[in-house]
Amino acid sequence: MKAVSRLCWWLCWSLAGLGAVTRALKLEELFEFGEAAGDLQLPPGSDSTAALPLKGSLVYLEEKYNKVYNLILFQINTNGFVAVAEPPAEEKYLGKMPSEFKMIAVLLGDLDNSDGQGKVYFRHDSTPNILGRAADHIRQGFPDGKVEKPTNTFIVTWENMAAQGTPGRGDQLDTKRITFQLVVAYTASSAWAILLYPRNGLQFLYTSIGGERKLLESCFNEGLVGWFWQKQGLYFNLTSDDEASIRQLTKKTNAAQSGVWVYKIGSSPFFVEIEPGKVTRSPENEGVTDEPRYTTEEPELRQRHVAAPPRSAPQHPQIVVVDEDLDVNVFAYNPETCAHNRHKCSASADCRDHSRGYCCHCRPGYYGNGKDCVAEGKPQRMNGKVNGQVFVGNLPSPVRLSNNDLHSYVVANDGRAYVAISNIPDSVGPSLQLLSSLGGVIGWAFALEQPGYENGFSLIGGVFSRQAEVVFQPGNERLTIKQEFKGIDEHDHLVMSTDLDGRLPAVPLGSTVQIEPYKEIYQYNRNFIISSSSRNYTITSPDGDVQTRSYQWRQTIVFQTCPYDEAGWAGATLTTQQLSVDQIFVMFDANNHLIRYAMSNKIGPIRSMLHVCNIEEEMCESAGSCRPKKTRLTWLDCGWFRCRFNSIQFYLYSIHQNMFLSGPAEENRPVDHCQRGSHDCDAPQRALCRYTGGSAYICSCLPGFEGDGRVCRDVDECQQQDRCHAEASCSNTQGSFTCQCRPGFHGDGLHCSPTFSEREKTQCEQQRESAVADSDVPFSFRPRPVGRYVPRCDEHGAYEPTQCHQSIGQCWCVDANGQEIANTRTGPHSSPPLFTPAPIGPTPRPDVQPIAPGAYLLFAQSGKIEHVPLDGYIMKKEEAKPLLHVPDRVVIAVAYDCVEKMVYWTDITGPAISKASLTGGDVVPVVTKELQSPEGIAIDHVARLLFWTDSTRDTIEVSKLDGSHRRVLFDTDLYLYWYWNRDGPKIEMSNMDGTERVVLVKDNLALPNGLTFDYENQQLCWADAGTRNVECMDPHRQLRRNIVEGIQYPFGLVSFGRNLYYTDWRREAVVAVDRHLGKETEEFLPQKRSRLYGITTTATQCPQVYNYCADNGGCSHLCLPRLGGLSCRCPDTTDGQCEEKVL
């Protein structure tokens, strides 16, 4: 390999192969720019150039530039580069690199600043502050060598640049833009280039050159060299032909901070040299490494002579259990002052100076260690990779995992954690169900905090190492888990990596695993945390065989707090805490090759210490690991001591120098395990524990379950004959079943009778009967009419939306009372475009429990949707039951389509928008791509449209009900009628095509969580968790009134007749409010108590509304209603012709 090729390969790898996670560069961390900084500005255009006079001398790529005429001007160009000579026309070099002239290309492409929003600023600057900052960046990139402080700099900033010829709506609001900066710092003998790419600064990666999409590129180019025979000189390419290399410019570094790249570009007028910075991780992340996430092809490189620096192998530090006096340095604070280091704190933290250095502290409303801070109550996402080798059972060869994606989602307000790992082979997937502890550390990090106690992230932030060892009984299989948590990235996601090594017990494919709730004690020290526990689990094989087993668990977490604030770290007083974990769900999805874990976590004080000691003692003794010594003190490997003094027994938990005592207790004292909760019977909803005296008890399954009492399985009563009437359907439930008479029959399901009773005729039926009777009167008694109008009624007796008079050949629209809607009457043989519901419904299946027709409340509760029947306005609480179970999901918002009898919901763990029929059927995915946190959802049952909000993307979007033809309506100033943002809460509305956006309410709002609109009474209502009020207003007349005051913490809200129903987080209830009386009338408390989310109702009839979008309104794609008409709009992505128009 030539020296030139070796150099380029090493340099490209130094950019593309960096895996350490560092803090991303923020826009405000760029060097100051703009008119206030004294910058000059490049004229607008797509290929503008301006000259920048230099001060002093600068060495760049062999040549020394000084004050000799024609050698003191650097040329700044719109297209993202700086040249040392006036560049030719852009068609000479764009897409044709390397070029013939010398340049530094920060981001080279066909860029444009002629729209008035893009700017190119540049200046020469030798002020001490700028020189000091430049020197800091250089030292961070080259910490080992002596760095001479620069004497001069020039700074060029490309701000909000667009791609030339970018299509848009014409208002530039949808144009994607990029921002980046170049700082060249130099002395008389040396020069450095500092390239800065801020987080979220690269909104596009390609520009169009010669009709083709070409990637942006970054490089140093020497151009043509030689006097007689010219040839191409050094071409140092920072990026490759892979778009990932462009994305990594903001995510990687060679100078200790993501988005910052430092290169030494000249130190000798006789030798060509480009030397990249050497620090691929920040001091905050010292010791944290990762594998390269992608590689680059070896590009062609041409130069005359260069020495290639050696490439060092990546290091993989081991995580070990450490002694308490070991000084662990996972990341180190620089013992300086906040004046120079404030930017190293989180944007949501304050920097405080101490006697020996500075520390970062999260502000009120946020929690973390100051380096990483997240908003209280905000859901947290984690991303990472899983690697390693796992032996299964007695198989001699391991299953290898290589960069398997791990995604996690935590509902911080509930302490509920969800973890999913993809591309899991069937050979290891069933056994990985035993390893819920893989995500247990995530549950601990964001556990629900009891008063006075703090979860892992509150104490140590998001940068730490963890090693855990799991020993499975009775086979003594052992597996080690090593995890690196690397802080929060530019997307506000916690980044982690996982490595597995060891053996798991074999679990047959198709088996289910149930892990019992457990408690775990965490012992805290200044630089590390340790814990251990024993956990039980049950394996149920596909043939029904049940096995109960256990495993032992130890872990060490290593981290670094700020060493300069001894009293400020909460862990200094919280020496021990207890993590309680329940509602554990594990599943291997063989169809999609996914392993899923979910668990609820709570952190608080240690409870039932003696019981925990007994568990640990039994665990060690059963494993044969307790080794008696000559003294009366017996050491148990699990970390527990048992001391016996005569008939008194003490249990002590000892870790290093801390000891906790529980006792005394009589050695042979009888224990009622049923009352104490220390029995091994199945869960109380499935089994009964009966105390029989002494310390004995009996376990038995409850009615509707079968088993030995320790493991109880649900009995499917519907498989037994004659459970329900022959004319009824049977639905199995946990421990019971329900019967429901089929249509045409009535009764309780156990006994069904034909429905013969005739209901009272409706207004439409009475009018139709009267009209028919009048037309049958003999003509001799009165003159024969031209023709009488006979109303048309549907199968329920309601007026059909379209009514026609056959004799005069006219049709018109009517409301629910049969009254004609103005301006809808048409001439002979034509019909107005009115919406007509079409019956539809999938075949039943057990995923969704069918419910009888009628009005219901539907509300979301974490992993399920429940329904409560309504009798008028009264909730029939005794008949409430789940409609849909999705245990590994978090359902937020729900909406109902009265036409197809479908319930739609948003799921923030997928994330996804899905639907299912109330009559039973498959769960149907609707939108699964380009979502981050879908929360609000609304259905237009007339125009057949779906609207939703995404709080992470800050968008309101619309699509067809099947998810097709997606279009972003709003992506600015966010967080139809929509909610609020915390900085300036407001309620807004617009037409359904996004036009005429106005603010309805902005005063006296705090946290307006719930929002609903009553079509019948034209009232907009909201529930505010900040003001603790429910209010309504007429949006047309702007009349606002209080409905009820002093509520607690509302989330969802829905209107039904005279009532409002809202879900409350603190009461964990559905609350009914009578708007006319202005007071709460009742509440419903679900059997499982946890936070409730969105709520809606199922209407027995669709509201009769004029449909402007009948037959899609003549639009090619989206028909969006607006006041008095419609708009034809194109989706954001379309394959064919699309025409936008307003009708």
From TrEMBL:
It comes from Neolamprologus brichardi. GO terms for molecular function: calcium ion binding; Wnt receptor activity; Wnt-protein binding. Residues 378-613 form the Nidogen G2 beta-barrel domain. This is Nidogen 1b. GO terms for biological process: canonical Wnt signaling pathway; cell-matrix adhesion; epithelial cell differentiation. Disulfide bonds join 804-811. Residues 334-374, 670-713, 714-753 form the EGF-like domain. Residues 280-314 are annotated as: Disordered. Residues 1-24 form the signal peptide.
